[in-house]
């Protein structure tokens, strides 16, 4: 009995001693008082970026929050974001890997979860120069345009079918299909769903792997933050091993299909899997790295695009003035006798501003992924000890009244009045991050979001469900790393173009 009491008392004593030592040795940012062992875990509200923004109002733009015994520093204005992502970038470019992220990434053999070092520099070079080069993005444009026209055809079918008249559509369903088909075609060169919406065996397996990965990652949440208690939450080595083997088996099968196709045709296609296999020797890429990079593309690109467009559509329905103005621009530039293509973007400045304003108000990853300090550094006059995690609350930065006029208003015109870069050069707007860990696929994401919005607005007028006012749309967020709408958007689309323009334009490359 005495032993049972001694162990927790010893753990609490160690924690208190460690906390006192940290506070005496370092000048840490202010923040809510942590509890022994759990830190601030029980004080954090489910939608974390909003909770941290509220705390920043009380404690200041740089705060300390303890996840168990791990210090997390959150910054919430553009000046501090610049310090973290530019001035101290080299010392804050490592990545905190949870046990599940470490398993999924083979201890950082990919890009997203790799620490900053020679491996990261190499794979980032592959992404920047090879996978996301302007030439390859242009070569893959027919796939994006194919999937966006498939979305238009699907919505048109839903809203004109006699059984669905006046019922509205679940916007997320159609956006998710575009994101899913687009990313699997870009990464794997495969469209797992046929023209009738039926998924093949590989597609069913792919979806099951994605779902199982999310389930495994979520199962360890509490244990990740309290290392002393991990013995109570053992890592299910067998479950992770089975998941990894299943993921690798599917990926290798697709890689072998592409290798055989290249042998027959004598040439490589533009898809990422072909690109990585043909570049394997040039960049000395291991199979683990190739598989890791392919799954990085999928996890980073599948949800974020659909999320961004759903939020944008919610804002456009709540702001009919903006919707009408964007449609007037589309009608003037495109007309009513053809569909928009990505080549039209340069002539559609207001549409681009609509996309940018949606990404400002609703960044899909509002806290980005945490950066980890590889040395003791100072930010905002406070100490950040080595091993601490640093988060930039890009949601709060983009709503800061000190740098944005009427920050809560959805007003795309602000970007006509002032050109603000959103690919990491202006620290007021950071939907894709900045510095050494800026998203290499930012331009691809921007192109797809802009294309989806353009087609949705050109082909349809959008209004709330019958009996519902625009202001009744729920603009709350679901908890999580990415910000789905708490209540999925349902809306009434009304076709506004001739019926022959609602057909999918298939592309095979």
UniProtKB/TrEMBL annotation:
Keyword Transmembrane helix: yes
Gene3D superfamilies: Cytochrome P450
Main location: membrane
Protein name (record): Cytochrome P450 98A2
One cellular component (GO) term of this entry: membrane
Residue numbers binding heme: 439
Its EC number(s): 1.14.13.-
Cellular compartments annotated: Membrane
Similarity comment: Belongs to the cytochrome P450 family.
Pfam families attached to this UniProt entry: p450 (PF00067)
Organism field: Cajanus cajan
Keywords: Heme, Iron, Membrane, Metal-binding, Monooxygenase, Oxidoreductase, Transmembrane, Transmembrane helix
GO molecular function terms listed in the Swiss-Prot or TrEMBL record: heme binding; iron ion binding; monooxygenase activity; oxidoreductase activity, acting on paired donors, with incorporation or reduction of molecular oxygen
């Amino acid at each position: 009995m005495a032993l049972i009491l001694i162990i927790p008392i010893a753990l609490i004593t160690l924690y208190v001693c460690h906390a006192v030592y940290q506070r005496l040795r370092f000048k840490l940012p202010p923040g809510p008082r942590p509890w022994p062992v759990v830190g601030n875990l029980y004080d954090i509200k489910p939608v974390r970026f909003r909770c941290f923004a509220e705390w920043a109002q009380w404690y200041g733009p740089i705060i300390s929050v303890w996840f168990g015994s791990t210090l997390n520093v959150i910054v919430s204005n553009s000046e501090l974001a610049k310090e973290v992502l530019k001035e101290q970038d080299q010392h804050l470019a490592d990545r905190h890997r949870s046990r599940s992220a470490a398993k999924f990434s083979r201890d950082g053999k990919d890009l997203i979860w790799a620490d900053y070092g020679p491996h990261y520099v190499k794979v980032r070079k592959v992404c920047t120069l090879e996978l996301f080069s302007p030439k390859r993005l242009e070569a893959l444009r027919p796939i994006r345009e194919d999937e966006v026209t498939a979305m238009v055809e699907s919505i048109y079918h839903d809203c004109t079918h006699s059984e669905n008249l006046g019922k509205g559509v679940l916007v997320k369903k159609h956006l998710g299909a575009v994101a899913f088909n687009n990313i699997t075609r870009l990464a794997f060169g495969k469209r797992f769903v046929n023209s009738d919406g039926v998924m093949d065996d590989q597609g069913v397996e792919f979806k099951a792997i994605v779902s199982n990965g999310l389930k495994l990652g979520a199962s360890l949440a509490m244990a990740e933050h309290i290392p002393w208690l991990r013995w109570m939450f053992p890592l299910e080595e067998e479950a992770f091993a089975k998941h990894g083997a299943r993921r690798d088996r599917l990926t290798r099968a697709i890689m072998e299909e592409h290798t055989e196709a290249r042998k027959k045709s004598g040439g490589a296609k533009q898809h990422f899997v072909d690109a990585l296999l043909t570049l394997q020797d040039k960049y000395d890429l291991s199979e683990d790295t190739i598989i890791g990079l392919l799954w990085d593309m999928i996890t980073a690109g599948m949800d974020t695009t659909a999320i961004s467009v759903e939020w944008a559509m919610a804002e456009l329905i709540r702001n009919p003035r903006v919707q009408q103005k964007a449609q007037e621009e589309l009608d003037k530039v495109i007309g009513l006798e053809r569909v928009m293509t990505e080549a039209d973007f340069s002539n559609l400045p207001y549409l681009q501003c609509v996309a940018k304003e949606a990404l400002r108000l609703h960044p899909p990853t509002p806290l980005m992924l945490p950066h980890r300090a590889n040395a003791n550094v100072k930010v905002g006059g406070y100490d950040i000890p080595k091993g601490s995690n640093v988060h930039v609350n890009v949601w709060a930065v983009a709503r800061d009244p000190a740098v944005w006029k009427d920050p809560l208003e959805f007003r795309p015109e602000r970007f006509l009045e002032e050109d603000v870069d959103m690919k990491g050069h202006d620290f007021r707007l950071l939907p894709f991050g900045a510095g050494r860990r800026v998203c290499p696929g930012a331009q691809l994401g921007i192109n797809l979001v802009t294309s989806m919005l353009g087609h949705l607005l050109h082909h349809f007028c959008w209004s709330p469900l019958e009996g519902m006012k625009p202001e009744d749309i729920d603009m709350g967020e679901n908890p999580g790393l990415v910000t789905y709408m708490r209540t999925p958007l349902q809306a009434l689309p009304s076709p506004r173009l001739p019926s022959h323009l609602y057909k999918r334009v298939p592309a095979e490359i």
